[in-house]
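As the next step, I selected for study one protein, both as residues and as discrete backbone shape codes, as given directly below:
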Amino acid sequence: MCAVAVFAGGCFWCLQKAYSGLDGVVDVKAGYTGGRLKNPTYQKVSTGLTGHFEAVKVLFEEDVVDYKVLLRIFWLNIDPGDPDGQFCDVGSQYRSAIFYTTDEQKRLAFRSKEILEEACLFERPIATLILPFEGFYDAEDYHQRYFEKYPKHYKQYYDFSGRACFFNKWRKQIDKILSERL
């Protein structure tokens, strides 16, 4: 049976790539969640006024991939200390958040955040939000699987954004801590 996990971590292109191709992940959609407007568009969400986050909805087989693995991938692909966006993307629509769909997801999300807070790895407090999932709107077709449709542009964006530099600094420590304690 498939389950749903929802994560916001800056530009949805990057999180969609991070989860795509993972064994047990059936589908990953880029889209919008957490806002007030029904049927939001990229144009409206990018103003930062709708309350939406750019996010991904991950459809996964629980008997193949554990939610803990999805959480680790999330934490490995964001800057948890940035309250105003992610890397070069600034604005409320780029904040990081975990949207839980079950009580167990909620428990694990809070526990993963607590583990990272206790590790005191980062210079700033962890700003990632943990919120109940209330709905998801797929992004426009041109945003879906952007990393495959426009690989050169995606690579330029990724390299420019500062993500790679951050991950190279923290990836091994975050992965080790969460693998051992979550």
